Amino acid sequence: MSPVAQPITLPSDGDHSGRDLGEQELELVRQVLATGTLFSPKGTYVARLEKDFAARYGVAHATACSSGSAAVHCAVAAINPNPGDEIITTPITDMGALTAILYQGAIPVFCDVDPDSYNVTAETIACRITKRTRAVVVTHLFGIPCEMDPIMDLCNERGIPVIEDCAQAFDATYKGKPVGTFGKIGCFSFQQGKHMTTGEGGMVIADDPARERRMFLFVNKAWGYGDKNADHYFLAPNYRINEITGAVALAQLAKLSGVVARRRASAARFTAKIVDIPGIMPQKRPHHCDPVYWKYCVNVDESKTGVGLTEIAAGMRAAGIFAAPRYIGKPAFECQIFRDKVTFGTSSWPYTDASRAGLPPVDYDRNNFPGSIKALSQVLVIPWNEFYTDEHVEYIADQLHAAVLQGVPAK
Ligand SMILES: Cc1ncc(COP(=O)(O)O)c(C=O)c1O
């Protein structure tokens, strides 16, 4: 455990050093270009991608879309809330997963998270359910599955559909079953930093043909392709991907198992090297799950490390490891969009929807989210990558040891 004087350069998911984009992608893109068809409704590559993705997850249907945000938007649209209905979700997530709710005229109702897993739980969801609840979105944060059994028991009992946001959790399993297949709809992102990437892109999966049909229509301006008397059936955007993106995604999908296996193996080696650091605890996870380490997160207990989270992160950054003393700077409900209800014009709709007259205001008070506040104050987010070698893992572990030791009072 000797900190290296010369920082080493780690593979990064921002460029070729940490992304496997090469001959397989090029070959499929070449094939697409040779067809001369880039428009997916007339092509075969996006269709193949959807078929392969669905088969991989053992579900009946998958629909490709232009981003992970679009995927969540499709899922919410498939639920088809009425204006002013509520969708329960986490305040620790990407904004794209939240604006989707507002765009469909529904209101994000945040529930707290477990401070050590950063994930929502059945208990935190239960106390946010009201007569207006139309769906629950669970996010498997950083690739660690939520505790799904009690969540599914609760929501099934109440007849509330669950949407799983798996943007960070490709191939993560809970009791041997992939996340994304517990709820009614699973959502994925192909953004640059995800387990598979097309720069931008996404996918939704579902077993229920009615919901899948609605999602298919939603990405297609609700045009009924192939129908006898096709029409634009309802309000919907164009969230399609083109055939080139489909080709890249097909090649990436073929690599996904390898990516996940390598991330798991290097994360296991890292865990073994850091278990003995006082005050450092890996992100909590259900025992019966197999996470996929989008990032590797640890909780920092400053009373035991004797050094602050910010200083630890700074120590690691000085060594070339872009660890962050936070994930998002603040819980989502403290962002201006929610705090000041900045939505459509000056209306603050759907918060002001007439159907909500007499209802109490939505609770965006940090005092009622102790788990989320604690989670954000103790999480150290360490970048993780499928190209990490044993040497990289050892280096990161050494630098974490060194960053923590700088705060241990001399004897
Ligand atoms: C949990 C989660 N949900 C949704 C999204 C939105 O995905 P995209 O950036 O592809 O729109 C992200 C992206 O980072 C995410 O991490």
Account of the 3D structure:
- By secondary structure, the chain is an alpha/beta fold.
- The chain has a domain at 19-253: Aspartate Aminotransferase, domain 2.
- The chain has 13 helices and 13 strands.
- The strands form 3 sheets. The protein has a 7-stranded mixed β-sheet with strand order 1-9-8-5-4-2-3, sandwiched between helices. The protein has a 3-stranded antiparallel β-sheet with strand order 7-6-11, with no helix packed on it.
- Helix 2 (45-57) packs parallel to helix 8 (243-274) and helix 10 (309-318) crosses helix 13 (390-405).
- The longest helix is centred in the middle third of the chain and has 32 residues, at 243-274.
- Pyridoxal-5'-phosphate binds next to helix 3 and helix 4.
Are there runs of 5+ residues with pLDDT below 50, and where?
Answer: none
Count of individual helical segments: 13
Integer-rounded radius of gyration: 22 Å
Biggest sheet strand line-up: 1-9-8-5-4-2-3
Mean pLDDT: 96
- Kindly estimate the percentage of residues that lie in beta strands according to DSSP: 5-15%
Q: Please report the distance between the alpha carbons of the first and last residues.
A: 19 Å
- Largest β-sheet summary: 7 strands, mixed
The ligands bound in this entry are: pyridoxal-5'-phosphate
Number of strands: 13
Gross geometry? globular
CATH C-level of the domain at 19-253: Alpha Beta
Order of helices and strands: HHEHEHEHEHEEEEEHHEEEHHHHEH
So, the CATH homologous superfamily of the domain at 19-253? Answer: Type I PLP-dependent aspartate aminotransferase-like (Major domain)
Proper CATH architecture of the domain at 19-253: 3-Layer(aba) Sandwich
Structural class: alpha/beta
What fold name stands as the CATH topology of the domain at 19-253? Aspartate Aminotransferase, domain 2
Helix % is: 25-40%
